[in-house]
Amino acid sequence: MNIQYIRNCYGCGLCAIACPKRIINIELNNEGFYEPNITDITDCLDCGLCCEVCAYTHKELSLQCRTPKSYAAWSNDSIIRSECSSGGIGFELGRTLIGKGYHVCGVRYNTELARAEHYIATTIDELRPSIGSKYIQSYTINGFSSINRKQKYLVTGTPCQIDSFRRYIRKFHMEDNFLLMDFFCHGVPSMLMWRKYITDVEKKIGKLTYVSWRNKRTGWHDSWAMAIESEFNKKMPIGGNNDVLKYKREHFFYSRLSQGDNFYRLFLSDACLGKACYTDCKYKDLQSSADIRIGDLWGKTYSQNEEGVSAVLTFTSKGDELLKWCNCTLVEHPLEIVTEGQMKTCPQRGYIYNKAMAVLMDENATINDVASAIKLPLKLNNLMNILKHPSKLYSYIVNRMKKI
Fold first, then answer.
1. Helix and strand tally (H, E) in the chain?
2. I want to staple 84 with a disulfide (CB 3.0 to 4.6 A). Which of 88, 280, 316, 362 is the partner?
3. In b/e form, how buried is each residue of 332-346, taking b as 16+ CB within 10 angstroms?
4. β-strand pairing of 153-156 with 103-110
5. What pTM did the predictor assign?
6. Residue 273: DSSP 8-state
7. DSSP 3-state assignment of 341?
8. 245-249 and 235-240: which strand pairing?
9. Element (H, E) at 103
10. Three-state secondary structure call for residue 197
11. Beta strand 153-156 with 178-183: parallel, antiparallel or unpaired?
12. What pLDDT, on a 0 to 100 scale, did the predictor assign at position 403?
């Protein structure tokens, strides 16, 4: 019993970590998503560990929670709050737990390999690269394989990664040493799309040295923006001495969703997510195997707030207790307020997906070609959704009349 026939799964990598023979590699498939491959099936022990820790092969979640506690939350440190995607609670949890002897397995962006990846942080300085959302699938192997089972850790990841991870630590009887945190997940787009996107950007500004997927330069509610720095960026001194100079970085590429940014157009239209995101995601709304879930608290309650507010759900008493240790403000709200604006069901895969993936897999196609390919189908799809809902149709007509 092994994972040799599993394809288009979550790509969480726990099968590779659990394998006692270390014969499972996690690699990108031809559609740009991580999946497992057994290097030599004759070395397999048929121990079944790879399947036991795999959330994809189980219908039920590894953690059952009837009613989580729900909060609005934000860091009391204004600098942290401004740098993070929403209220800064993820960073505050990491900073607090490092102070209590924990290590943090978080996600950073590796500019050399052009990928998001899990890594281990043992100091607050090492934790800083984990700040901010990374809207691409992360490579987990280096981070997860560096975990010392005798240490205590905060581990963050997508809901499917965390579900598998809990199965892993439970199997090896070390659950008490871990606090697990996931987030409200939209889905992960193909790495083919991300690579075409950065190829287009690097033609304009050179090799990338920094990427921020959610930048609050225009405010939290308009933070669907890419802020990217390159090797050609100017560095302007703003103070310091001869030994240590502080520099102000100038962002040479700053693209907002409202300006037609191709990454967000494809990501938010669900045009090229992983197949499991459409058909096998068990983690929308309140479904989680984490101790804590975080995200943006969209909706009416904080619609005038531009500093950022985190939506927080705690699924275990341990998660709730640790949350209250942090340097943050917590406001308890009903679930309907905290989860307003979050996806309640899986996205639909259809003609737009087929069209986008066909162009993405063309090595000669650019990100602009992909965006152009889905432009008309996306408009037709949006129009069909409007016609199905009278309230949306009314709003559409009113908005069109205003523009006349």
1. 15, 16
2. 88
3. ebeeebbbbebbeeb
4. parallel
5. 0.90
6. B
7. coil
8. antiparallel
9. strand 103-110
10. helix
11. parallel
12. 53
Residue 237: what pLDDT?
38
Longest dimension (CA), the chain: 70
Tracing tokens 């205003």 back to the chain, one arrives at: 402
Residue extents of the structural domains in the chain: 64-348, 351-403
How far is it, in rounded angstroms, from Cα 379 to Cα 377? 5
The radius of gyration computed from the CA coordinates of the chain, to the nearest angstrom, equals 22
Strand arrangement, sheet containing 253-256: 208-212, 225-230, 253-256
Distance CA 15, CA 19 (A): 6
Residue 382: count of CB within 10 angstroms of its CB: 13
> Strands 292-296 and 138-139: what pairing?
unpaired
Task: Note the Cα 8 to chain centre separation in Å.
Answer: 18
Q: How far apart are CA 164 and CA 254, in angstroms?
A: 36
Which pLDDT belongs to residue 26?
97
Calpha distance 113→119 (Å, rounded): 14
Beta bridge partners of 74: 329
Is 270 in contact with 187 (CB distance < 8 Å)? yes
The contacts of residue 244 (CB under 8 Å, 6+ apart) are none
CB-based contacts of 337: which residues, under 8 Å, 6+ apart?
70, 72, 297, 299, 301
CA distance to 83, 214, 252, per residue, from 222 (Å): 14, 9, 19
Q: Which residue carries 């494809």 as its tokens?
A: 266
Chunked mean pLDDT (size 10), the chain, 404 residues? 93 98 97 97 95 96 91 96 94 96 97 96 96 95 95 98 98 96 97 96 86 85 80 45 38 65 91 96 96 96 95 97 94 97 91 94 96 85 67 56 54
Q: How far apart are CA 146 and CA 118, in angstroms?
A: 10
Which residue(s) pair with 204 in the sheet?
none
| Two structure tokens written together for 173 | 């009887």
**60 three-state secondary structure:** coil
- Which amino acid does the sequence have at 35? E
Return the structure tokens found at 57.
Answer: 């092969």
Distance CA 355, CA 278 (A): 16
Contacts of 265 (CB under 8 A, 6+ apart): 257, 371
3-state class (DSSP) for residue 310: strand
Burial grade of 394 (CB within 10 A; 0-12, 13-18, 19 or more): exposed
- With b for 16 or more beta-carbon neighbours within 10 A and e for fewer, the 279-299 pattern comes to ebbbbbebbbbbbbbbbbbbb
- pLDDT for position 123: 97
